[in-house]
Write a structure and sequence with these properties.
Blueprint lengths: L3 E5 L10 H4 L7 E3 L20 H11 L7 E6 L1 H16 L4 E7 L4 H5 L7 H11 L14 H11 L4 H4 L2 H9 L1 H13 L13 E6 L4 H13 L4 E5 L6 H4 L1 H16 L1
Parallel strand pairs: 1-2, 1-3, 3-4, 4-5, 5-6
Helix pairs in contact: 2-3
């Protein structure tokens, strides 16, 4: 069995987001883009079901084909947190070696919130805008509700985005609302300090020029604890470029593969 690229999707998306990116991988490298837990119709999480990133990692590990000689992790947003956790898990148990990581705006809000005393006023304001008062985004009573989903979708896209979405897309999003809430809770409370996410393999970090200040800061801090990381800014793009402007993101992944080959 050859090496495999494992693509991990973000909150409220799915494996479909990776279709344009899977063809450009190096010759002989396999590719898998599994559905995260709680997204397939037969695996929806009922409201109130607890979940942890360790359960996501267990699910992702189970998707890696037997005999794989190495795995390259490509992930976006929440998927980035899952990928970093998976990489550490695989290293600890000495199973399939991780060969590289390409992370597009990985979110480690828990790591950032732990450093709030050192953040700029802009960062603190944007964090407050995301979480609301008192910690609205982490409130289990409303987490995953349509009101909650609208706040989340509009924050990462633009104000009014939820209202503009087709009803079919809204219906599908409502179905995964509780898992979305769990993912937001996980990235907000489960990440450890940034220093915990040092890796000893090639690492590419990608972010959009017009993404949020917290997203930029999380990439900056990850690069700070991983001096070998290649950091790439996508001109004119935001957090969801990997879904809405894939042609602008493709060169970043192509460059990552080229660095692996070299």
């Amino acid at each position: 069995m050859s090496e495999v690229a494992l693509f991990i999707h973000s909150t409220a998306t799915g494996p479909f987001m990776w279709t344009p990116f899977m063809a450009g991988r190096p010759e002989g490298m396999g590719a898998i883009a599994p559905v995260n837990r709680g997204y397939s119709p037969q695996d929806l999480l009922p409201r109130g079901t607890p979940f942890s990133v360790d359960e996501e990692v267990k699910h992702l590990k189970a998707q890696i084909p037997a005999g794989t000689t190495g795995v390259h992790l490509v992930a976006h947003s929440y998927g980035g947190f899952a990928a970093l956790t998976l990489a550490q898990d695989l290293a600890q148990v000495a199973e399939v070696p991780v060969r590289s990581l390409c992370l597009i705006e990985p979110v480690l809000f828990g790591s950032l919130r732990a450093e709030e005393h050192a953040l700029s006023a802009e960062l603190i304001d944007q964090m407050a805008n995301l979480y609301g008062a008192p910690n609205y985004l982490l409130n289990e009573e409303i987490g995953g509700s349509e009101e909650w989903i609208e706040r989340f979708v509009d924050y990462w896209n633009q104000p009014g985005m939820w209202a503009l979405m087709p009803e079919k897309a809204k219906t599908m999003t409502r179905m995964v609302g509780w898992k979305m809430f769990q993912e937001v809770r996980m990235v907000s409370t489960e990440p450890k300090a940034f220093e915990h996410y040092r890796v000893d393999v090639p690492l590419t970090l990608v972010y959009g020029e017009h993404t949020t200040a917290p997203a930029k800061e999380m990439v900056r801090r990850l690069a700070e604890v991983n001096p070998h990381a290649h950091v790439e800014m996508l001109p004119g793009q935001g957090h969801m470029a990997v879904v809405g402007a894939q042609q602008a993101v493709l060169p970043a992944l192509a460059g990552h593969w080229a660095r692996m080959a070299a």
